[in-house]
Each structure stands twice: as structure tokens, then as C-alpha cells.
């Protein structure tokens, strides 16, 4: 299952690139999640090129949602303040946003993911 990551719109330029680079340096994310740049909106012929403002990753048995959340939390911990909010969007449209203090947020997200997986 591929998920999309986006950084809050008010974040400084380069935060998306920083998150992408961080995920590419994380051995599990790089090897099993295969981070890629994608456009959040379809390419329009009247515009030059697309806007690549979404990172996609594969979640599977080798790279779990928990590992992804941990990698994002570690990246956010290295940013100023609490770091910019990061939204994870699932193929079914469900979104989870990491914001605020990292430890509390990751615990909440793991609980939500566990609830979602139980259906």
C-alpha cells in the first residue's frame, strides 16, 4: 500500500526536501518503502512541468506504518520547535497528521493505526 506524505503549507522551503532526504537515508524506508517524489495535482499541458510536493512510500510487511511514524518523528525532533506538521494520506483518503510534541503524537497515531487495522 502506498501512502502520501506532505508537510504543512506554511513550512519553510526545503522542509519537504529535508524530509525526503531523511527518508532516503533511513535504511528501512529507502530499501523497503522506496520514497518517491510525486505531484499532488495532475500535470497540465499549459504549465511547464509539474509540482512535486508529495512524497510517496510503500507500507508493507518489511516497512510498517509504525516504522514510518518513527522515522517522521525523528526527523521532526531535529527541526526547530516541534517541527512542521506532516500529514500521512492513505489510499482510502484517511489522513493522519503528526504535529505538536513528538512522543505524545506518535503514541496517539499508533493507537489510531491499531484501531484502523482492527476495522
Label the structural class: alpha+beta
The helix content, as a percent range, equals 40-55%
How far is it from the N-terminal to the C-terminal residue, by CA? 16 Å
Structure summary, number of beta strands: 5
| Helical segment count | 4
Beta-strand content: 15-25%
Mean pLDDT: 78
For the record, the count of structural domains works out to 1
Described by strand count, sense and barrel closure, the largest sheet is:
5 strands, antiparallel
Task: Please state the CA-atom Rg, rounded to the nearest Å.
Answer: 14 Å
Q: What gross morphology would you assign?
A: globular
Q: If strands are numbered along the chain, what order do they take across the biggest sheet?
A: 2-3-1-4-5
Low-confidence stretches: none
Q: Helix and strand string, N-terminal first?
A: EHHEEHEEH
What does this structure look like?
The chain has 119 residues and is an alpha+beta fold. It has one domain (2-41, 51-118). The protein has four helices and five strands. The protein has a five-stranded antiparallel sheet. Strand 4 and strand 5 (95-98) form a beta hairpin. Helix 3 (65-77) runs antiparallel to helix 4. The radius of gyration is 14 Å and the shape is globular. It starts with a strand and ends with a helix. The mean pLDDT is 78.
